Amino acid sequence: MTDHTSHAVRLLLVEDDAMIGEAIRAGLKREGFAVDWVHDAASAAQALPNEPFELLLLDLGLPGSDGLQLLKTLRGRGVSLPVLIITARDAVSDRVAGLDAGADD
C-alpha cells in the first residue's frame, strides 16, 4: 500500500522584526508550510545543520552578523539549500550583493 500522507515543505525564516516575522510565519502556515523562525544569524547557523529544511527565507538586516554574511558562510561550506532574501533594502547594489553571495532570489 502506498503512503499518501502529505509532506509540508519545511522552511527556516530568519527575521529579527517580531511583527514582520509573525506575519510571514502566519501567512506561510496558512498556506501549508512548516515554518521554524529564528531571530538572528547565530541561531540560524545552529539550526541549519541539524534540521531538514527545504528553503531558507533570510532577512539581511539582522543583529550581530548580518544575513549576507550568513549566506556567504553557508555557501562557503557548500550548503546548497535554496535561499530567498527578504529585506526592506531596495538598492540594486543590495540585490546584486545577495545574488553574488549565493541567494536564489
Describe the structure.
The radius of gyration is 14 Å and the shape is globular. It has one domain (about 10-100): Response regulator (Rossmann fold, 3-Layer(aba) Sandwich). A four-stranded parallel sheet has the order 2-1-3-4. The protein is an alpha/beta fold and about 100 residues long. Strand 1, helix 1 and strand 2 form a beta-alpha-beta unit. It has four helices and four strands, in the order E-H-E-H-E-H-E-H.
CATH class: Alpha Beta
Instruction: Please list the strands of the largest sheet in the order they lie side by side.
Output: 2-1-3-4
Radius of gyration: 14 Å
* Number of helical elements: 4
Can you say what the CATH homologous superfamily is?
Answer: Response regulator
Measured as a percent range, the helix fraction is: 25-40%
Distance between the termini: 39 Å
Mean pLDDT: 85
Q: Pairing-aware structural class of the strands and helices?
A: alpha/beta
Largest sheet: 4 strands, parallel
List the helices and strands in order.
EHEHEHEH
Overall number of strands: 4
Detail the poorly predicted runs.
none
